[in-house]
Amino acid sequence: MKTLIKFIFLSSLFTCFSTWAALKIEITQGVSSAQPIAIVPFVMGAGVGSPGVDVAQVISDDLTRSGRFKVLARQDLLNRPVLASQVNFRNWRALGQDHLVIGRIIPGLKGALSVQFQLFDVYKGEQLSGFSLPAKGTNLRGVAHRISDLIYEKLTGQRGDFSSRLAYVTSTPKSAGQHQYQIQVADADGYGAKTIVTSSEPLMSPAWSPHGDKLSYVSFEGTRSAIYTQTLTTGAREKLKSFKGINGAPAWSPDGTQLALTLSKDGSADIYIYNVITRSFRRLTKSYAIDTEPDWSPDGRSLLFTSDRGGKPQIYQISVNGGRAARLTFEGAYNARGRYAPDGNSISMVHRVKGRYRIAVLNLKNGFTQVLTDGHLDESPTFSPNGSMILYSTKDGLKSILAAVSSDGKVRQKLRLLSGEVREPVWSPFK
User: Fold this and answer.
1) Are residues 266 and 250 in the same domain?
2) DSSP three-state, residue 421
3) Within 10 Å of residue 235's Cβ, how many Cβ atoms?
4) Domain check: are 266 and 318 in the same one?
5) Cα separation of 247 and 228, whole Å?
């Protein structure tokens, strides 16, 4: 079959793709104790015109999606203050709101805009936060996500990650039983999807660089698997040397100088470390078993990997300097695709329960395993940058979709692609 590979460069990224949501997010479960918050529509100042983005609605959607906030419906707003002097806290207390957000968009410097917002504690009757953020019409959604981050952090004490991005693989049926595969990148709310690479051969295992400016992935173009690294802003990509056999599962080190990957060039499938600067390979594991799916610890000192060296797939940990690998999972006969939480205190994984594959979290301090999902084929877990959510692939009928669950199991979402199937998600690091 003739391989078709098409690269999308920066000029086309911003002109050829729809800004409508590629992923439709449905919240299926939230926290019963979600904080009530009112978000008043932002007022447009004189000379601003129509910005094309409802900033307050983006903020409302972000906070609602977290499952930790209950946003007051717009039709229930008693009034719509713009300035702090116009806020009557008694009215908002009567509506049972804990917090209030107001804002406006006014002309800024050199033709730009200024987005101003204030966050109030309704019961204390005082301002908690307030910022003026520069913006252009083309990045108002990004500014809205940044405001959501600031509000979330102020009210929860945890850094918000609404400004982060998702990468995932899509598959769309074509004629004669063929498929078109794409790796796409979208905002955390599913908007602004951009195609990074398109191929008639499978694409797998996207992996973010620590600065979020590159993606590594596996492509099967040209008769064998190969690992590529692609710069997102230019579309330029580099191919690692393609060895005979398996070339797969790339994972970036926290400092961005190394890639862990799976190679079978020396016989069995083992974990290797590729030095991006010296372009050299170092074999880390030496086993007759299959060692794959590496993931770096947040401090860069060790790696997780999946191995069947004990007879069944389990998750092991090894120092980046080599040595003896330690088995981490003992609950159940199948545990795979381990991924460290951002704080390094737990790992997410695929855990088999009575023939069904579900997402679970292993607490590395006490060894307790918590099963978070109830699907029959849940796979590819990836933590959000702040560790509050885990995104994964699952089956909805016969179709592959994405889903998300909070790390405590209390919040659940489904993310459906408007057309085709989607799998192998990976959440970006913080910007």
Assistant:
1) yes
2) strand
3) 16
4) yes
5) 10
Residues 428 and 431: their CA atoms lie apart, in Å, by 8
pLDDT in tens, 166-220: 999 999 988 777 889 999 999 999 999 999 999 999 999 999 999 999 999 999 9
- Region 19-23: mean pLDDT is 55
CATH number at residue 304: 2.120.10.30
Q: Please say which residue of 156, 172, 187 terminates a domain.
A: 156
Global confidence as pTM: 0.91
Instruction: List the alpha helices (DSSP H) in 120-199.
Output: 140-156
* Residue 51 reports pLDDT greater than 80: no
Of the three residues 156, 182, 208, the one that is the final residue of a domain is 156
- Do 245 and 126 lie in one domain? The reply is no
- 286 and 410 inside one domain: yes
Report which residue type is found at 51.
P
**Cα–Cα dist 387/161, whole Å:** 9
Q: Which residue has the tokens 């590729």?
A: 274
51 contacts 105 by C-beta, under 8 angstroms: yes
Residue-range definition of the domain harbouring residue 332: 5-16+164-427
Of 343, 311, 350, the closest CA to residue 327 belongs to 311
DSSP string for 320-337: TT----EE---SSS-EEE
- 50 occurs within a structural domain: yes
Give the whole-angstrom CA distance, residue 295 versus residue 328.
Answer: 14
- Name the token pair of 76: 């229930």
Q: What is the pLDDT of residues 221-230, one digit of tens each?
A: 877 899 999 9
| 267 plus 378 within the same structural domain | yes
Is 26 within a domain? Answer: no
Q: How far is Cα of residue 345 from the mean position of the Cα atoms in its chain? A: 19
Lowest model confidence (mean pLDDT) among 8-22, 126-140, 217-231, 332-346: 8-22
CB within 8 A of 20, min separation 6: which ones? 191
How far, in Å, CA of 151 to CA of 99, rounded?
A: 10
Among 383, 386, 389, 380, smallest CA distance to 408 is for: 389
How deeply is 279 buried, as exposed, middle or buried, from its count of CB atoms within 10 A (0-12, 13-18, 19+)?
Answer: exposed
Instruction: Choose among 220, 221, 182, 209: nearest CA to 16.
Output: 182
Q: What is the structure's pLDDT at 94?
A: 95
For residue 307, the model assigns a pLDDT of 98
* Residues found in the chain: 431
The total domain count for the chain is 2
Angle between helices 55-65 and 140-156 (to 10 degrees): 40
